[in-house]
Design a protein that fits this description.
Length: about 450
C-alpha cells in the first residue's frame, strides 16, 4: 500500500511481527459497514459516481459474505483486516476500489471499527449478564425461605436465606450492566473523518457517516479521536469487575459444594471427576471462572501500560489494544453462559443449609437485641451475651439450653423465646434485610425488572 516510497520489500520477520489480521479479522463486518458509509459520503460529495459507489458496495458485500463463509483468503503481507479488505476490493473492481481510501486513514478506520465492535459486544454482554441474573433470581425465588448461615470472616455470623445470598450477586451484576451502559455512551462516538491525525483537506459529511453507522455523535478533536483508547481501558476495567463478582460467586459455590458445607450439589454435567480418585466430583467451572479472572485483570494492565508513555498521536503500540480486548470479551462471554447454565441446574440442599444454621450461637445478636428491647444499653447487652456465650462454650451447654438467669437476672425466662430461626428471620423486616417476605418481594421485583 506504500510501495511508492520504498525500494525493498518488508522483511519476513517484520510481516510476522507486525501482522494483526490473524486476530483483527473479526472486525470485518464493522470495517465493511464503515467503508460503505464512507463511500456513500464520497458519493454525496461528488467524489464517486453512482456506478462507482455501487461497485464498491457490491464488492464489499461479496467480500463480507466470503469472510463469513470462510472462503476468503487473508494474507499477512497485507498486515491487517483493513488492508486485506481494501486490497481484495481493488483487485476485484479496479479503479473504483482505489478511490475508497480518499480522506481516510487506517488510524480513523481502526478506531471506528473497534468502537463498533465494542458497542456490539456491550449489547451482547448485557444480555448474557441478564441471563445469569435470571438464573440466580429463579433459585432465589425457590429458596427465599431456605435458611443458611451468613458469614463474616468465614465464621458463622447470623442467619440469612439462600435467596438473600444469591440476590446479593444479582445486585452486583446490575451495577455491572449499568457500568457497561454508561461506557457505551463514550464508545458510541464516530471518529471517522479524523484521518491519520489531522483530518483531511477533503470535506466529507461526518455527521451523515456517523448516523449511518448508528453513532450518537462525532468526535471533536482529530488527534484525540485517533489515539484515544480510553474506551477500551474503561471496558476492560468493567470486565475485570464483572470477573471479580463472578469469582466471588465461584468461591462461595466451591465452599458450598464441599463435604464440609454440603449446601449445594452441582449437576454431573457441570463437574468433572478425577483420573485417579474414583469418588471425586470437582467444581471446575467455578475454579476456572476464579482463575480466568486473573486474565481479565491482566488484560486491563496491558492496555493501561501500553497507553501510559505514548506521545500523541498514533503509535503502532496501539495495535496491542486488540488482543486483550478480544480475549476479555471471549473469556467473559463463555464464563457468563456456562455459569448461567450451572446455576440453573444446581440443587440446593435445604436440610444441610438448615442444619448449619441451627447453631444457637447464630442468634447471639438477637439475644442482645432482646435485652435492648428490655431497656439494656447495647454495649452492656453485648457484654452480657458474651458472658453467656463463654459459659455455653465452657460448660458444653448449647446457648439456647443454658439457664440465662444465672448470668444476669435481666434475662427472664422469656429471653429464650428468641431461639427460633423462623422468628429471627421474620423479624428482619427492614428494607434490604432477609425476612422471608422481603426476599420473596425482592425476587419478584427482579423477575419483573428482568422481563423488560
Ligand atoms: N492494524 C493497525 C492497528 O491496529 C491499524 C492502524 C495502522 N496505522 C498505522 N499508521 N500503521 O493499530
Amino acid at each position: 500500500m506504500w510501495k511508492g516510497r520504498f525500494s525493498k520489500t518488508t522483511a519476513d520477520l517484520l510481516q510476522q511481527y507486525g501482522e494483526s489480521v490473524s486476530y483483527d479479522w473479526r472486525l470485518y463486518p464493522h470495517d465493511i459497514a464503515g467503508s460503505i458509509a464512507h463511500a456513500r459520503a464520497q458519493l454525496n460529495a461528488g467524489l464517486l459516481t453512482q456506478d462507482e459507489f455501487e461497485q464498491i458496495e457490491n464488492g464489499l458485500r461479496q467480500i463480507e459474505a466470503e469472510i463469513t463463509e470462510g472462503t476468503f483468503e487473508f494474507s499477512i503481507e497485507l498486515e491487517d483486516i483493513h488492508m486485506n479488505i481494501e486490497s481484495a476490493l481493488t483487485e476485484r473492481i479496479g479503479a473504483a476500489g482505489a478511490k475508497l481510501h480518499t480522506a481516510r486513514s487506517r488510524n480513523d478506520q481502526v478506531a471506528t471499527d473497534t468502537r463498533l465492535y465494542c458497542r456490539a459486544s456491550i449489547d451482547t454482554l448485557r444480555e448474557l449478564i441478564s441471563d445469569l441474573q435470571r438464573s440466580l433470581v429463579n433459585q432465589a425465588e425457590t429458596h427465599a425461605q431456605t435458611i443458611v448461615p451468613g458469614y463474616t470472616h468465614l465464621q458463622r455470623g447470623q442467619p440469612v436465606t439462600i435467596g438473600h445470598h444469591l440476590l446479593a450477586y444479582v445486585e452486583m451484576l446490575a451495577r455491572d450492566k449499568e457500568r457497561l451502559s454508561d461506557a457505551r455512551k463514550r464508545v458510541n462516538q464516530c471518529p471517522l473523518g479524523s484521518g491519520a491525525l489531522a483530518g483531511s483537506t477533503i470535506n466529507l459529511d461526518r455527521a451523515a457517516i456517523a448516523q449511518e453507522l448508528g453513532f450518537e455523535s462525532i468526535t471533536h478533536n482529530s488527534m484525540d479521536a485517533i489515539s484515544d483508547r480510553d474506551y477500551i481501558a474503561e471496558l476492560l476495567f468493567s470486565f475485570s469487575l464483572i470477573g471479580a463478582h463472578l469469582s466471588r460467586l465461584s468461591e462461595d459455590l466451591i465452599l458450598w459444594c464441599s463435604s464440609e458445607f454440603g449446601f449445594i450439589t452441582l449437576s454431573d454435567a457441570h463437574t468433572t471427576g478425577s483420573s485417579l480418585m474414583p469418588q471425586k466430583k470437582n467444581p471446575d467451572i467455578c475454579e476456572l471462572t476464579r482463575g480466568k479472572t486473573g486474565r481479565l485483570y491482566g488484560n486491563l494492565m496491558s492496555i493501561l501500560t501500553a497507553l501510559k508513555g505514548l506521545p500523541l498521536t498514533y503509535n503502532r503500540d496501539l495495535q496491542e489494544d486488540k488482543e486483550p480486548l478480544f480475549d476479555s470479551i471471549d473469556t467473559l462471554t463463555l464464563a457468563l453462559k456456562i455459569n448461567t447454565e450451572m446455576i440453573e441446574a444446581m440443587e440446593i440442599n435445604t436440610q444441610e443449609c438448615l442444619n448449619a444454621a441451627s447453631d444457637p450461637l447464630l442468634l447471639a445478636t438477637d439475644l442482645a437485641d432482646w435485652l435492648v428491647k428490655n431497656g439494656v444499653a447495647f454495649r452492656s447487652a453485648h457484654e452480657l451475651v458474651g458472658k453467656a456465650v463463654a459459659a455455653s462454650l465452657r460448660e458444653g451447654v448449647p446457648l439456647d439450653q443454658l439457664d440465662l438467669t444465672t448470668i444476669d437476672p435481666v434475662f427472664t425466662s422469656e429471653a429464650s423465646s428468641i431461639f427460633s430461626l423462623q422468628k429471627a428471620l421474620e423479624a428482619r423486616t427492614n428494607t434490604g434485610a432477609p425476612s422471608f417476605k422481603n426476599v420473596k418481594e425482592e425476587a419478584d421485583r427482579w423477575t419483573q425488572l428482568l422481563q423488560e
